[in-house]
Amino acid sequence: xRRRFKFSFFIGLVVVFFLTAIVPLALNYGSLAVEKKVSxxxxxxxxxxxxxxxxVDLSEYYGIRPSVLIAQAAYDSDFGQNLLAAKYNNLFAVExxxxxxxxxxxxxxxxxxxxxESEKSYAIYPSWDHALEIYLAGLKDGSLANKKLYEILxxxxxxxxxxxxxxxxxxxQDDDYANQLESIITEYNLATYxxxxx
Length: 198
Prior knowledge:
Layout: H1 2-29, H2 44-62, H3 66-77, H4 83-88, E1 102-111, E2 114-123, H5 128-141, H6 147-155, H7 159-168, H8 177-187
Antiparallel strand pairs: 1-2
Helix pairs in contact: 2-3, 2-5, 3-8, 6-7, 7-8
């Protein structure tokens, strides 16, 4: 009798463990994606207002148009509402370097007009300000993209030249990236953040 009780108790523990640990992991596995929407309490305008001051400050140092950087952060992070930006403060889907804090997430990206799914380890940052600083430093030193990209962004004669450089210099394989950035710049009148405008 005692042996039967111990066995049924053991089976009960296994079932409880399975229901409380394994099932939630299995249910959430498919939802751990960069583009998963997270409620942040910010609408698109408030997101822009929140990051614009830091972008403008950094733009003065790095010489890149604030309008382009704000649009890029908005597009890459779904205005701060995708999982990667909202929970892990990674505005630009920057991949983690060895030894950095990271989170492994699925991502869906456009590649030469095709939709491609992948899973990568992305960097985790303490804040959006930190993400902006790391991103711009990485552009300048060439660790995030072709070093020529930074040169073009810093000397671009127009917003269009700057936005097209991301595809031309292999920052992205999304052949519609420039159009998406320019659409955001126009819709939210981001050129007003540039000293010269276009």
